[in-house]
Design a protein that fits this description.
Length: about 250
């Protein structure tokens, strides 16, 4: 597949406002599970891979602006985007009595569009505070039905403190609201579309540069140990911690 991206940016003299636009073509191939997975409990539920799936193709347009304020201590941004999907891949659930199993299929066309906003504040030279918010609508262009697992509202917050030249601390949160998902009844295996779970998870981390070539890092995820599902009926990880070493040559 051939993919490409073309962009243009212009900074307004004096005001230092940067206006930009991008257009790009992208391709996403089906996963191995979409193509080849097989499941049949012999009673209520059958699902199958679809080896005839075509790659998902997208054409994306973006138009936005960035503006530094308060002697570059604050930067605000706004971007509008629109993505036209062709052969979008969506899992279609069917009752067991249907002669066709549940499987991933290509939609003829789908549309995703919305806006992204950002605010970055540097109250001190060692501190960065950032907030990003995305409003998204995503639906089948032919039927108007919302696409699965595309949140209407997503917000991310990040704080970074360079405490010393070697030590950097960070913390953040992600808020996801307004998704549609597919739920399967555990008794009858009947499936239905319904509102997915909204959730907010917190994270924090630290890194320490022992020398220019060796960095130690530590990260904690879901610090409040929230029980949530980013995909319906598949629980996400609860409180988790990670540590590692990064070596640079």
């Amino acid at each position: 597949a051939l993919t490409w991206r073309q962009g243009l940016a212009w900074t307004v003299p004096g005001a230092r406002t940067t206006l930009f636009g991008n257009v790009s073509r992208s391709v996403a191939t089906p996963t191995a599970q979409d193509l080849y997975y097989q499941s049949d409990d012999g009673a209520f539920f059958r699902s199958a891979g679809n080896p005839n799936l075509r790659p998902e193709r997208a054409l994306t347009f973006e138009l936005g602006a960035r503006q530094p304020l308060a002697q570059d201590a604050v930067t605000v941004g706004l971007t509008f985007f629109r993505t036209q999907l062709h052969d979008a891949i969506e899992f279609v659930t069917r009752p067991y009595a249907d002669p066709l199993p549940s499987l991933a299929e290509n939609l003829s066309r789908a549309l995703q569009e919305g806006a992204e906003t950002s605010l970055i504040w540097r109250p001190l030279a060692e501190v960065d505070l950032a907030a990003h918010y995305t409003y998204l609508t995503a639906h089948d262009a032919n039927t108007g039905v919302r696409l699965l697992r595309r949140p209407r509202h997503t917000a991310n917050f990040t704080a970074t403190w360079r405490a010393t030249p070697a030590l950097t601390l960070n913390a953040g949160a992600q808020l996801v609201v307004g998704r549609v998902d597919t739920f399967t009844d555990p008794i009858t295996f009947a499936s239905k579309r319904a509102h997915g779970q909204d959730y907010c998870v917190l994270r924090a981390g630290a890194s320490y540069a022992v020398n220019p070539h060796l960095t130690l890092w530590l990260r904690g995820e879901n610090l409040t140990d929230v029980a949530y599902e980013s995909v319906a009926q598949y629980p996400a990880l609860r409180l988790a911690g990670y540590a590692g070493v990064k070596v640079t040559f």
